[in-house]
Amino acid sequence: MSEPQKLNTQIDLNNIDLNQIVQILTEYRNTALKLAVIIGALVVAGMMFNDCHTKEQVLRARISQVQQKLDVIASQQQAVKNLDDFKASFSKGINEDKIIPQITGYATAHGVSISSLSPTESQDMGLYDVIKVQLLGAAPDYKAMVLFLRDIEKSPYLFKVDLWEANGRGEVDFTMEISAVHVHI
């Protein structure tokens, strides 16, 4: 009888026998099982890593989208704040009830007497109203008249002198039309 072939010998790959493979696997069963478990664990770890990597990429993309949305919201809030600040910087204008006392106050400060002061028309322009006022009066001299005009034009209210006609050498008689703006904010 011949001795059984040792497994440490070279196997002829051309003449491989299924019985030889089974015999080798049987002898090295524990090693083969360990090798199979290791290969299986590596495959499972690779699949888990790939799955986690994909989830991480999806989460990073979502975080980026949310950050972009937050940036747009912050931009919009800043624009609203800038618009509110811009609107607040406007002079509010003056309503019809306060125009007459305001102009009369300017006239009194410079000795100008007003004989007639009346609103002639009011136009609604959407965001603001334009109120036209006509006045007749007299000033002690041209200097007082110019100071009165300056106070109207430099007023914190939105007044504009549209027409001014004056005549006289000492005392100055005048006719004036003023536009006053009242902003709807």
Question: Could you give a short description of this structure?
Answer:
Helices cover 52% and strands 25% of the residues.
Task: Please give a structural write-up.
The structure is a single chain. By secondary structure, the chain is of the alpha+beta class. The protein has two domains: 89 residues; 88 residues, 2-Layer Sandwich (Alpha-Beta Plaits), CATH 3.30.70. It contains four helices and four strands, in the order αααββαββ. A four-stranded antiparallel beta sheet has the order 1-2-4-3. A hairpin with a 4-residue loop joins β3 and β4. The radius of gyration is 48 Å and the shape is rod-shaped. The chain starts with 17 loop residues before the first helix and ends with a strand.
> In which order are the strands of the major sheet placed?
1-2-4-3
**Oligomer description:** single chain
Structural class determined from secondary elements: alpha+beta
Element order: H for helix, E for strand: HHHEEHEE
Overall pLDDT level: 81
Domains, number: 2
